[in-house]
């Protein structure tokens, strides 16, 4: 099953743009899944009403972990979520992750914000990120997404900064038919030159077409 974690989806069909908010231009494994969990074999129990929803998920793998998700939906068009995951002992690369996000739909405008954290307990890199985004429906078929995000990568045991920077994305999209849609994306990166050893990512230009059946 897919993770509870994060505002941005794991699958391209559920994304508002081509790229994830938390990456460093493909230099390392720094896509969204460096903060979010991706998917795993597990079991979940979920409950929802008009006011809130709660979910508990447990991995069925040998190195089991769990996720907890709580959402508030008591105000029309508003969703607020808090999600926490723990994959500690007996893992050799144990970690804890958390995301907190809120979104609001105002007619044709969707606005959202998130803060996210990946805390590696034994080895690897800690990752902290945030995003703010807006998606506006220009017509029934055309829309545009604007997103601003930040990312910091530090050593889990020494707090040495490996990367710190921001990313700006603009992405128009169009739904051609009920089964066929496409989008364009332009993203630029602004790296703090005093932090880390990463090369500043180059600009990203992408086109994506999705056919669903």
Give a description of the structure.
With 213 residues, the protein is an all-beta fold. The protein has a domain at 12-36 and 92-211: monomeric porin ompg (Porin, Beta Barrel). 0% of the residues lie in helices and 55% in strands. It contains no helices and eleven strands. The protein has strands at 42-48, 52-59, 66-72, 78-87, 95-106, 109-120, 125-137, 142-155, 161-175, 180-191, 204-211. The protein has an eleven-stranded antiparallel sheet with strand order 1-2-3-4-5-6-7-8-9-10-11, with no helix packed on it. Strand 1 and strand 2 form a beta hairpin. The radius of gyration is 18 Å and the shape is globular. The mean pLDDT is 89.
- Helix/strand order, N-terminal first: EEEEEEEEEEE
The CATH topology label of the domain at 12-36 and 92-211 is: Porin
State mean pLDDT (0 to 100 scale). Answer: 89
Main structural class: mainly beta
Shape: globular
CATH A-level architecture of the domain at 12-36 and 92-211: Beta Barrel
Strand content is over 45%
Helicity level, as a percent range?
under 10%
The CATH superfamily name of the domain at 12-36 and 92-211 is monomeric porin ompg
The count of strands amounts to: 11
Can you identify the CATH class of the domain at 12-36 and 92-211? Mainly Beta
Strand order of the largest sheet: 1-2-3-4-5-6-7-8-9-10-11
What is the CA-based Rg, rounded?
A: 18 Å
Distance between the termini: 20 Å
Low-confidence stretches: none
Number of helices: 0
Q: Give the biggest sheet.
A: 11 strands, antiparallel
């Amino acid at each position: 099953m897919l993770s509870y974690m994060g505002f941005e989806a794991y699958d391209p069909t559920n994304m508002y743009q081509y790229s994830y908010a938390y990456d460093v231009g493909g230099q390392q494994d720094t896509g969204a899944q460096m903060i979010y969990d991706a998917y795993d074999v597990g079991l979940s129990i979920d409950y929802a009403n008009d006011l809130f929803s709660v979910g508990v998920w447990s991995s069925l793998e040998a190195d089991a972990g769990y996720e907890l998700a709580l959402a508030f939906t008591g105000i029309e068009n508003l969703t607020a979520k808090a999600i926490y995951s723990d994959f500690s002992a007996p893992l050799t690369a144990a970690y804890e992750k958390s995301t907190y996000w809120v979104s609001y739909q105002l007619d044709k405008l969707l606005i959202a914000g998130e803060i996210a954290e990946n805390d590696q307990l034994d080895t690897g890199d800690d990752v902290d990120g945030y995003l703010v985004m807006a998606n506006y429906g220009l017509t029934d078929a055309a829309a545009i997404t604007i997103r601003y995000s930040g990312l910091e990568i530090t050593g889990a045991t020494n707090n040495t900064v490996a990367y710190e920077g921001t990313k700006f994305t603009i992405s128009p999209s169009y739904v051609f038919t009920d089964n066929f849609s496409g989008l364009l994306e332009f993203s630029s990166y602004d790296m703090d030159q005093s932090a880390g050893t990463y090369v500043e990512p180059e600009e990203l230009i992408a086109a994506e077409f999705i056919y669903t059946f």
